[in-house]
Amino acid sequence: MIALWQPIMRSLVEAFGAKTILEVGAESGLSTKVLLEYAKGVGGHLHSIDPAPDFSADDLAQNHPEALTFYRELSLDAIPKLPHIDVALLDGDHNWYTVLNELRLLESLHDANPCQMPMIFLHDIGWPYARRDLYYAPDNIPEKHRNPYAKLGMGRLKKKLLESGGLNATLDNALTEGGPHNGVLTGLEDYLRESKLNFLFINLPLYFGLGVLVTQERIAANSSLKTEFDKLKTYLAGEKLIDLTERFRLKTVAQLQSLQLELAEAKANIACLQDELASANQRSD
Predict the structure, then answer these.
(1) What pLDDT, in 10s, does the model give residues 255-284?
(2) Which one of 4, 81, 268, 277 is most buried, by most CB atoms within 10 A?
(3) Number of independent structural domains in the chain
């Protein structure tokens, strides 16, 4: 999601006057460092959540205690402990159960007050996880809310997982696309239906899909924010073109991943052959 920070998200965050930022899903730390620089620049604070970050998150937090608090926890455990948040970036576990409950917890954290609710950016509301769950750690999802899954890849316009190749073939993906309680966008839509708050929701169909969520009361009270959202809406005028571009990009990503898997297998086979050759040479000596 952080690839969309400069071209789309930052101007909205600045217009919002945000100082306290929540990041769910730190992964390699790239987004954490970008958001940390923003927080330091405005005298704010970043709260980052990831149970298994792929970088030295504790060291980064120790070096910037005034601007960063890191939580090595599941988002559903950490969010209730947070202070009020200005902006939340949700890019953690991409499944219906997690997304729906993250949104519920954020609403509860802010007492369902439309004037206190943060502006929320939600990633991966487009294909492939709009209508299909992904489980980074399946056992963290209650069994009754967990769809059948397998480590198999996905193909666009294919409801079932592929037997070989496809996108994200090394991850635990729901066996079937669609249906209730399945996917990030489904979780978001279910939240919007149940919440009594009046949200503006914008769905930008690019880079796996970016959702922007803010209460109407927040927009009405902030003319700069309204201006930025009016600009953002112009992106939707070219929605069909954006969607077509995204289809081509996703096809390329899937092909690249398949080639990477084939290359890894080829390298493993070469290594085995080299070992066999070395053993044969030793025996002949």
Answers:
(1) 788 888 888 888 888 988 888 888 878 777
(2) 4
(3) 1
